[in-house]
Amino acid sequence: FTILSQPVCVACLCTSAGRCIRRQGCRTLQPDCGIRSLTTIAREPAFVASSSVGLHRDSVPRFSLTQLHRPTAAEEQDFQQRLGSCSSYRQVFKLLRSVEILSDTMAAAALHRVADLEQEGTSLKDPTVLEKDTIRALCFQLEQDSGRLTDAGLVSALLACTRLFLDPWSTLMVRLVSESQDRLDRGEMTVGQLCTLGQAMIAIEGPGCVMLEQVMANIQKQAPAQWSLSDLVAVYRLLQGCIGEDGKYRDLLNAMHTHAVKVTSRMDPAAVSVLLSTLVILNQTQAMPLVISLCKQAVQHVPHFTDEELALVVGALIHFGHSDHYFVQAMEKYVPTMAFTSHPETVTKVMQFFGRRNILSPTVFNAVAESFVYRADDYNTSQVARQIMAFGKLGYLPPNAGNMFRKVEIILHTRFSHFQPRTLLNLLHACILVERFPVNFVSKVFSRYFLQQLQEQGTGMDRLILSQLTQLYMTVKLECPFYEGPKLHSKYRVKSFLMSGRSLETPVDTHLYHSVKNGLIGLLGARSYFGSKVLTPYCYTLDVELKLDEEGYVLPASHNGDVYKRIALCIDGQKRFTTNKRQLLGKEAIKQRHLRLLGYEVVQIPYYEFEKLKNMTSVVEYLHQKIFPHTYRLNW
């Protein structure tokens, strides 16, 4: 099975008996003037009819379109299965040489499989694959017989060529596009075929091309409720790339969302991931009923998602701020089985999901911590940081914390210069949240060079970055007294950690605060004996502050003289804990830890204790026991 080194006569045809028949003389084929030179032998024109490509195994690749030897549905299915098992383009070519006859859709599928195996970003791993005899012969015949291809074979071949990054102005591409335009004008393509054509045109000309507008117009001739499930998924996939204007196709999308909710229960893993990723790309915040329905369907598919699909699913749930109890349970069963083998980005996305949703699952976190020790060398710096950030966010230390953070330290030593400034700061800040102190690297972070890099990256120094730097500096001063490195310049320090949006403190729950405040008035006799939302000189804001003299009497909040003891009441609502366990988030744990080191007596008032109190009498008694456990209460 070889390609002739010289162009051959178009009329030199091999019969089944192996004899060469010449008709109408011999004329030389001119090589393609595009990006490749493809030559082949065509069948006798009398045999040319429909949409199959014949392959003569014992000589050169001889592809021609014939209706006489069209493969059966079973043969096509078998070919597709064998194609899917190919792990290199050489295996694909070997498969092509092994079949007797090839339909145009099978030929296009072979090109797609080569693209699957060779695509790497915006280029091919091995560009010379396009110069291989088999692919040149196949492409050449697709070019010569573009007018005889089926609609499905035509648009699939065109899309495959874009995925192989063929020159849009090559003869093959021009002919396929021209023929596709003719078929589009006839208005006979199915919704699925229109979507394939639309994806190809986005790759060639971008989302603003005129032909894509025509494709979308044809798609909308039929209501989404009349589409098949595969067509619905195909249109969602197409819309990922063709909506460039806000609100464009809004009515179509809303109709699709309504129909999709009704058929979610029939969706396979690929469909669920496609729809969720499309909703993220198009920011369809109004489609929460569909998001919730897809999340429920995802529960049964968790063990069957590919790495890429699972990453898209959890990424979408992060984006829309949604989680489902049953989905979490399914993930708890699945993550221990995949933590050591799945793609690093998938494992990282899973950790981000649990971290962002404040879901503390020791099963998941312990499995990922174990895998981190063995796999972290293969992670990029962003993946390392994002995984550790989840541990810091939830304030959780796994059983192998020693080994895990030793691994983090090794990575910091060997790849310090590889970290982006913000990524590094996020990693170091996550460490201090769980009482792991990166003293050896803090001096580098406080250096002028690093701070300048931090300022130049992205949007510069925002309040969150300055807060992280300030808290990192406070931590080494309070908890690492042996630190003798550079200080953080005052211009990089904030006055308060409490701010709108992302903050290093969680604002006090208003309803819970007022309930506690009323109880304190009943306990102390007057509102003047405690301060509320007090900003300390140490950046932390106290929910309630009490001042005591040396004899233990409560001083007025306005008293600024000698104060023997300060009591900080932390009124901890649900948002200060992980959603599924009574564990303080990392940022709340470090706040209480620092307040104690600064001399405050910290009294925690957790919501799950306070909500059990039935009346004011029980509230006052509870507060007395929490704040003054060793004294008798006076009655006012």
From TrEMBL:
RAP domain: from which residue to which, for each copy? 567-625
Q: Name one GO biological process term.
A: mitochondrial RNA processing
- Entry's Pfam families? FAST_1, FAST_2, RAP
> What molecular function terms (GO) are annotated for this protein?
RNA binding
UniProt keyword Mitochondrion, yes or no: yes
Query: For this UniProt entry, what's an example GO CC term?
Result: ribonucleoprotein granule
| Keywords, comma-separated and alphabetical | Mitochondrion
SMART domains in the cross-refs? RAP (SM00952)
Q: Where in the cell is it found?
A: Mitochondrion
Q: Which InterPro entries match?
A: FAST_2 (IPR013579), FAST_kinase (IPR050870), FAST_Leu-rich (IPR010622), RAP (IPR013584)
Is Hydrolase one of the keywords?
Answer: no
**UniProt protein name:** FAST kinase domains 3
Phylogenetic placement of the source organism: Eukaryota, Metazoa, Chordata, Craniata, Vertebrata
